[in-house]
């Protein structure tokens, strides 16, 4: 009986740990970030709403799970929010989840 209760406790602990690690913290996308549809182009270019823009050196592209990816790993026509630097180049891209895209 004692082994069964230890096993049940271990299973409950593993499940609660798995659920906690599966939760993704809400992203803090700046309010001044621009909206658009992203499609990769020949590096260092990307298309935002059909307009060819250039990625700044060190630009980051972040997926909905906060994983940074290379610019060509983003599916075509993905809804994004992005920021430009002072030279008009893209410095940061947040690929939106379907829920985030509905809220914009």
Structure explained in plain terms:
With 104 residues, the protein is of the alpha+beta class. It has a domain of 70 residues. 26% of the residues lie in helices and 37% in strands. It has a five-stranded mixed beta barrel with strand order 1-2-3-6-5. Strand 2 and strand 3 form a beta hairpin. The protein is elongated, with a radius of gyration of 20 Å. The termini are far apart. The model has no long low-confidence stretch (mean pLDDT 86).
Number of helices: 2
- Strand share of the residues? 35-45%
- Strand order, biggest sheet? 1-2-3-6-5
What is the H/E order? Answer: HEEEEEEH
Overall pLDDT score: 86
Helix-and-strand structural type: alpha+beta
Distance between the termini: 54 Å
Main beta sheet strand tally, sense and closure: 5 strands, mixed, barrel
What is the number of beta strands?
Answer: 6
Q: What characteristic shape results from the CA principal axes?
A: elongated
Rg computed from alpha carbons, rounded to a whole number of angstroms? 20 Å
Contiguous low-pLDDT stretches (5 residues minimum) are: none
**What oligomeric state do these chains adopt?**
single chain
- Please bin the fraction of helical residues: 25-40%
